[in-house]
Amino acid sequence: MASFPPPRTPVRFGAFEVDLAAGEVRKNGLRVRLQDKSFQILALMLDQPGELITREQLRERLWPSGVFVDFEHGLNIAVNRLRQALGDAADNPRFIETVPRRGYRFIAPVRSELRERPEPAIVTDRSNETATATERLPGTSTSPSGSAIPEDTGWYHRFRRLPSAGRLTIWACLGLIMLAVTVATVVYWDRAPASALGFQERGWVLVAEFENDTSEALFSGTLEHALEEALRSSRFVNVVPRERVADALRLMKRPLDSKLDARLANEVCLRDGGIQAVITGRVAKLDKYWITVNIVNPAKGTTVGSKTVESSVANDAPEVIYRLSDWVRTSLGETGVSNEDRQQRLEKVTSRSLRAVQLYSRAMALGNQDEWAAAEQLLRQATEEDGDFASAYILLAHSMNNQGKPRSNWLPFAERAFQLSGATSDRERYFIRGSYFGFIDDAEQAISAYKTLVSLYPDDYWGVNNLAFSYDGLGWKDEAVPYYARRADLRPTSPEVNYDAARVLAGRGPGFDAARPYYRRASSLRSRGPFYVWMMPIELYPAWEHWFYDRPAAALEVIRNLERQLPNADPDSRQGLKHHAAFAYLTLGRLQDAERVCSTLLEPDAYAVDVRTLAWIAFARNDRDALRRAGKRLAATWPNSNSVILLLKAGLLDEARTMLAKLPAEIARFGFIYGDALLRGAEGELALTQGDRKTAIKLLQECVTRTERTPYSEFLIGSESLASALEAEGNLPGAALVLEQVMARRRASFGSQGAFWLPVPYRLMRVYERLGRQADADRLRAELKTLLSVADPDHQVVQAFRTSTR
């Protein structure tokens, strides 16, 4: 009997595959160039993995007797080239270990299977060949001569009597039919999950934590993160960010560090309402590792697709995960997913170290809980595990920056990430570059990187988020508006993010109609937490809208409702709510109400903003004594441009100059974006007080121009002062233009700015009268009459308005 030697399948180790017969080495499917001597060394080592290959053995194999060369030099060169091709190092070997003065040993796990080729049946007695064959056909008989005679069995007999050409045609047709059925079946099963889920392009999937049925902790929290990263290379499938998961967990009153198993992931999807699929998984170990991924319909809790892939060693997990990722993408309806594309993506995988990925994943979870110090420690370990882990370096820089550590401590990590970013995926690369340029205060470059990221992946949350904030940082407020809305769409269950969108859309976007869906969503979701002094609480949003549409009585009722809720507010929120209630009362000219709310805030260690609010109340009443008392107290607080202006209006020039001298250092210390503009405003107010109108006009113009799109009250205060200086100089058209620009920004002037609103329309009305624009003056008079209908009678604008109408 003839036989054939059993051929060997390619030998595999790490990401490499060696075809010994063809003399080829591939890494993730890509050909690795290797010289002949180096390949022979590798082949000899793979034939005896784990065993010592002596230098004498290598000499006999590479340079047989009769060949005279500098053996030592030639061997060293061949081994060094082999190590370079494998990315190995002699001092920290992963594949080839040097045994000093003796030789080398291949130390990595090697996978190789031997498949026996089926032995062909060799016919030695051809006299029985026909009989043997015909015995296998039903419906035949044998003639006395031994030949097979088909019986007349209907269709078969007729088929045999057809000409050979006709039989071939029929066989061809049957073959085509079977092929079509097979292809249709494969396509159906590949696309079945997409059909069952109704999945559409840019739909959302949530990756749950994998079940780890091995005894190896390395897989815990690792494979699901690797799958998320693999899926993020798709522009068809969107992976739910962990921030969005945290929003749902808060609504469910579940701890943010809850284990996101299959059951909880399903509940998150139902609470979120916009997630089409859950991806669950399991890793088990028998003779090999078996990694399974399931696609689950969260609405029904049923599995609509499942795939299992085997792996010989744990280090193959990244390649297996990418294969499973491609299956998920294809199953959900994405087309054009190819093996070639997978190989390119594998070349740019986040990290091939499972331990580094595990540490990085845990650090991200801690960061989402604002535990940045703990996250920093894990990220330092991740970068030690994998020195080329670009994403770990940039997140390490973010974690240290978020703790307020000096820039010199964390900027080198950002620089390292930037250096490595060229070898990462598009998604990682542009996020890293946007972060880096933001860190070095190059806002335009940061915007360019984030715009590219968002153009490639429109639903990347951090790309959208950072682009909005980068536009704001550069002062391009209008450009930021649509990204605040998109940011809220990407986190539909976050009350804070949706309210932020409502405020931006209402204040500097299309207006209240466009903002209303976000306000309603935020209002239905809100869970009260600490408020920052500068952010108007959601409870006052209706008052803002009423005020803008000239319904001051309705606005007043909203503010009173908020004040009635204050005793029941938690301590962390109560102070912020009181501040904003006081500012809202001031916007309506309700000085007594504002004073009552604000006075309850005053303690021996009161915030400067409390004292400033009382000072502005005194100024609005034209109460010089109360203003000076508040000013004296204000002089002892931290330097602030608004405080400087109040000290000037109180007639405390020396105190104002002293605080103004401290202001530049304070601005530099905290890095205020608009600090220089606010400083110019305070300097302009000082010049105006000293009678230097020309200098005042120049400085105030700079302040007003640069703060026009900001929430700073200096914009309204400076505009009114600038208009008064221009009017005093006889430039009535210039004064009117300045005030008209403020009136155009009315939507953005409620709350902390609204306290300074009423003097603006009153002054513009008087300027219109002096310019002879009586129709415009009458229109403003009617508006002011409505706005002042709920104001206190001792408000200076109310008194001036009544005097002007007599």
Folded structure, characterized:
By secondary structure, the protein is α+β, with helices and mostly antiparallel strands. Among the domains are: 96 residues, Winged helix-like DNA-binding domain superfamily/Winged helix DNA-binding domain (Arc Repressor Mutant, subunit A); 139 residues, Rossmann fold (3-Layer(aba) Sandwich); 164 residues, Serine Threonine Protein Phosphatase 5, Tetratricopeptide repeat, CATH 1.25.40.10; 58 residues, no CATH class. The protein is 58% helix and 9% strand. The chain is built from 36 helices and 15 strands. Strands 10, 11, 12, 13, 14 and 15 form a six-stranded mixed β-sheet that branches. Strands 1-2-3-4 form a four-stranded antiparallel β-sheet, with helices on one face. Strands 5-7-6 form a three-stranded antiparallel β-sheet. β3 and β4 form a beta hairpin. α24 packs parallel to α26, α25 runs antiparallel to α26 and α29 runs antiparallel to α30. The longest helix has 34 residues. The protein is elongated and about 110 Å long. It starts with 10 loop residues before the first strand and ends with a helix. The N terminus is likely disordered.
Task: Offer a concise description of the structure.
The chain is of the alpha+beta class.
How do the strands and helices of this protein lay out in sequence?
Elements: E1 11-13, E2 16-19, E3 24-27, E4 30-32, H1 36-47, E5 52-54, H2 55-62, H3 71-86, E6 96-99, E7 103-106, H4 129-134, E8 140-142, E9 148-150, H5 155-161, H6 164-197, E10 203-207, E11 211-212, H7 223-231, E12 237-239, H8 242-251, H9 262-272, E13 277-285, E14 289-297, E15 302-311, H10 317-331, H11 339-347, H12 354-368, H13 372-385, H14 390-402, H15 407-420, H16 426-439, H17 443-456, H18 461-474, H19 477-490, H20 495-508, H21 512-525, H22 541-548, H23 552-565, H24 571-587, H25 591-599, H26 608-621, H27 624-634, H28 641-649, H29 653-670, H30 675-689, H31 693-707, H32 714-728, H33 732-743, H34 759-771, H35 774-787, H36 796-805
Parallel strand pairs: 10-12, 10-13, 11-13
Antiparallel strand pairs: 1-2, 2-3, 3-4, 5-7, 6-7, 8-9, 13-14, 14-15
